[in-house]
Amino acid sequence: MSLLTAVVEPSFYKTRLVPSFAWLVLRVMVRSTFALVGIAIVTVLYSIAVMAHMLAFRDRAVFFLYARSWSRVLLRFAGIRVTLHGAHHLDPSQRYVYVANHASLFDIPVLLATVPDNIRIMYKRELGSIPVFGWGLRLSPFIAIDRERSRDAAAQLDATIASMGSGASVVVFPEGTRSADGTLGPFRRGAFALAARSGRSIVPIVLAGTASIMKAGSFRLRPGRVTCTILPAVVVTQPSTRATEVQTLDDVRRSMESVLAP
């Protein structure tokens, strides 16, 4: 009997566990596929609706309302729950340069859905060529940038400063690209130069949990919880110099890293 048990048990567990694991993987793949298809459909519908609204009423500001609603629907599709901390640090009468860590494609929907402010996003100009979605971006108050042309980037910096003067905040990902593992990468100086030249305060935002929901280079969705922490505003010393901007950059990065660290 013991010999029979020794021979039968391994094959028994193999036949039971392997199909269970394969079924789990299949369920995750099917769920991710349905969620992504749903997100694509919702994005197209929202893009058409907001373009029609902006063209019919010549009201670009309405884009912020559509963007916030679109973001919240996307988060529901993906099974993402967001907890917001630190909203009391914001003054509704002020406009800011927000700097946030970047680890997932879902960072932008989380920010648009959660931060109690109308914020402009800087996006790569080539995204404007995407049918329907890109057309909406080109009509929107969001800011297209060309990273390969430094002269154009400087012009866009001036345009961003002008747009903030008309009553808009802007969010910048100072790492410049998504983190592969969710850790905080080196910061670039652009956001801090923008804050210095515009006279706006910097507000650091720490996003924790987005990296595990959709990792860089992956289209697999994992439902989960995200924490969005708004830190106190930081005033850039005036008159500003490169040295003061770098010092502010270091201070802000340390404050964000202390929140992001486990």
Fold and architecture overview:
It is a single chain. It is built from eight helices and seven strands, in the order H-H-E-E-H-E-H-E-H-E-H-E-H-E-H. The protein has one domain (about 1-260): Glycerol-3-phosphate (1)-acyltransferase (3-Layer(aba) Sandwich), CATH 3.40.1130. Strands 1-7-6-2-5-3-4 form a seven-stranded mixed sheet, with helices on both faces. About 50% of the residues lie in helices and about 15% in strands.
- Terminal CA distance: 51 Å
What average pLDDT do the residues reach? 85
The assigned structural class equals: alpha/beta
Round the Cα radius of gyration to an integer and report it.
Answer: 22 Å
Count of individual beta strands = 7
Helix content: 40-55%
The CATH homology group name? Glycerol-3-phosphate (1)-acyltransferase
The neighbouring-strand order within the major sheet is 1-7-6-2-5-3-4
CATH architectural designation? 3-Layer(aba) Sandwich
Question: How are helices and strands ordered from N to C?
Answer: HHEEHEHEHEHEHEH
CATH fold descriptor: Glycerol-3-phosphate (1)-acyltransferase
Main beta-sheet annotation = 7 strands, mixed
Helix count from the secondary structure assignment: 8
Characterize the overall form: globular
CATH class (first level) name: Alpha Beta
* Low-pLDDT residue intervals, each spanning 5 or more residues: 1-8
How many domains, as an integer? Answer: 1
- How much of the sequence is in beta strands? 5-15%
